[in-house]
Amino acid sequence: MTPPSDTEVREAVLWAAQEMLRSGLVEGTAGNVAARLPDGNAVLTPSSLDYLDMTLDDLVVCAPDGCVVEGHRSPTSEKQLHLAVLNAYPEIGATLHCHAKHVQMFAITHQPIPAVVEEFDVYVGGDVECSDYRETGSQELADEVARRVADRAAVVMANHGLFACGKTPKDALHVASLVERTAEVVWGAQSLGPIVGVPDEIGAKYASYYRYGRTGKF
Question: Considering only the top CATH level, what class is 6-215?
Fold first, then answer.
C-alpha cells in the first residue's frame, strides 16, 4: 500500500476533527487531532477555532521538538500530549483527544472502561485505564498518557477526557467512537446488574490481534 501523501494526511486530520464534532465526541472547539507527516513532522489542529470553519490552511505543522515550522495559527494547547505519543511510538501515525460525555463519567470517577466485548479487545487492546491526574497542557500529562498507550489504543485522562491513537486519523476516530459507545453501554448496563466481562483467555486472544495489527508482532 502506498503511504499517504502530505496533502492526504492533512485532509485526514481535518476530516477527523470535523467528524469528531459532528458525531458528538466534542462540543465547540474542545478536543484536538494530530498526525505524522511523511517528513517526520506532525500536523495538528489549531487552538480555539470552530471545526466547521476550519480549512487546511488553518492546520499547524510542528517539528518533533514542538517548534512550529508551518502555519499562521497557534497549535492546540495539547501539542505536547500528541507529540509525546507520536515521538514515543513510530507505529502510531495519528492521535485524537476528545471530551466524549460517557467517557468523562469514567474520567471524573477515575474508573477504567472495561473491555466487555471482543471488538473492544481487537481494536483497543484491552481495558482502557484511567490515568493519574495531571494538569491539562502539561508535559507531565503528556508523559503520563504516553506511558499508558504503550500497548493500548486509548486512555481515559483523569478529570478530563479521552485520548485515542491509531495508524491514521480515521483509525483514531474509530477507536474514540468505540470507547465512547462502550462507556455508554457499561454505564447503562450497571443498572441491570454486575458487569460480566469476556473470559480472560478470550480477551487475551483478541488483544493479541490488536498488538499484531499495531506492531506486526504477537
Answer: alpha beta
Q: Are 9 and 43 in contact (CB under 8 A)?
A: yes
Residues 72/56, Cβ–Cβ less than 8 Å: no
Phi-psi category of 14—alpha, beta or left, where left has phi over 0 and alpha has psi -120 to 50?
Answer: alpha
Q: Where is 33: in which H helix or E strand?
A: strand 32-36
Enumerate the domain spans of the chain.
6-215
In the three-class reduction of DSSP (H, G, I as helix; E, B as strand; rest coil), residue 142 is classed as helix
Does this model's pTM top 0.85? My answer is: yes
pLDDT in tens, the chain (218 residues): 788 999 999 999 999 999 999 999 999 999 999 999 999 999 999 999 999 999 999 999 999 999 999 999 999 999 999 999 999 999 999 999 999 999 999 999 999 999 999 999 999 999 999 999 999 999 999 999 999 999 999 999 999 999 999 999 999 999 999 999 999 999 999 999 999 999 999 999 999 999 999 999 87
| From 19, 78, 129, 180, the catalytic residue | 78
How buried is residue 74: exposed, middle or buried, by Cβ count under 10 Å (0-12/13-18/19+)?
Answer: middle
> CA–CA distance from 11 to each of 102, 103, 133, 137 (Å)?
28, 27, 33, 25
For the question of residue 144 being annotated catalytic, the response is no
The helix, strand and coil proportions of the chain, stated in percent and rounded to the nearest 5, come to 45, 15, 40
